[in-house]
Amino acid sequence: MLKKVLVILLVFYSSTVFSQDQPNTLLWEVSRVGLKHKSYVFGTFHEVYPSFFLSQKNAVQKLTSSSMLYVEQSRKDFYDSGTTNTTIVTWDVDTWKAATNPEQRKVFDSFVQKAENTDYYNLPPLLLSLTLFRMYAQNFCDTANRNSDESLDHYIERLAETKNIPVESLDDKEKIGEVFSSNTLADSVLVEACVGIMRSMLEEDSKPCQIFDTYKNQTINYEFSKDLTEKNNNLALLERNRKWVKRLDKAFQKNSCFVAVGYRHLMYRQGLIQQLRDVGYNVKPILSK
C-alpha cells in the first residue's frame, strides 16, 4: 500500500532499468552553445537528513561556485506564504467521514486517538498526505544521521547564504495556498494515501523505507521515455515543471545557476531534464560525489 503512496508523493518505482535512465547521480550539468557559463541541477529528497548534501562533494563545489540558487520555495517565501490572501481550504470530521470507507475511518480514528491531536481532521488530503509522509520519513526511515527536522532543500539554501549566494523561489508564494487547496490531485487517491501512511505508522512498518536507500545510493531510474498523462496525480507536477522551465531558461542565459528541487521533478518525459533539452540545452549527468 505504501509503495502506492510513495508514487503519489515522491517517486515512481520501476523494475525496468536502462543505462541512460539510471546514470547513478543526482547532479546534472546544463550548457548551451553560445553560453560561456554552465548551470547545474541537483535532485533533492526533501526528507533525507540535511547534512547528506555535504557528502556530495562535487555538488557542493558547483553550488558554492554558482552566482544564483533556485529552490522550489525559499524559507522566506515559505513562512511569508502564511500572510498572503490565499486561504487554504480546510476539511473537518464530517468531510473525512464522507470521503472514507468504514475500514479507512477506523484507521484514521485510531491514528488521531494515538496522536492525541484532532487537527489532522482539518487538513485537506494533499496537505495531510505531505504532513504524514514527512512524519513517517523522519521517524521511521531516515533517523540514523538526523539531528534536526530541517528539509534537505532548506539546508542547501542556508549553505548558499553563508557564501552570499542569492536565493530565489521557483514557486510564487501567492500560489502555494492554491497548490495545497487544488483538486488537481484526485481526493480519493490522496485519501487512500493518507490512510496508508497512518496504517504504516500504527503498525510501525518500515519496509517501504527502501526508497531512501535508492536515493542515497543514487540508483534512481529517471524513466525519461515515460510520458505522463495530464490527469489526477500528475497535473500539479506537470504544471509546475512547465512554469519552472520558462523561468530557468531565462535565468540560465544570464547567470551560472544551481537548481535544487525534488528529484521527481527531474524524471519522465515532462521532467525538467527533458524539457530543458527540448528548448536547446545540453543536459548531461555528472558525478555529484
TrEMBL record:
Q: Which CDD domains does the UniProt entry name for this protein?
A: Tiki
Q: Which residues form the signal peptide?
A: 1-19
- Identify the domain of life: Bacteria
Keyword annotations of the record: Signal
Decide whether keyword Signal is in the record.
yes
For this entry, the protein name equals TraB/GumN family protein
| Source organism of the structure | Xanthocytophaga flava
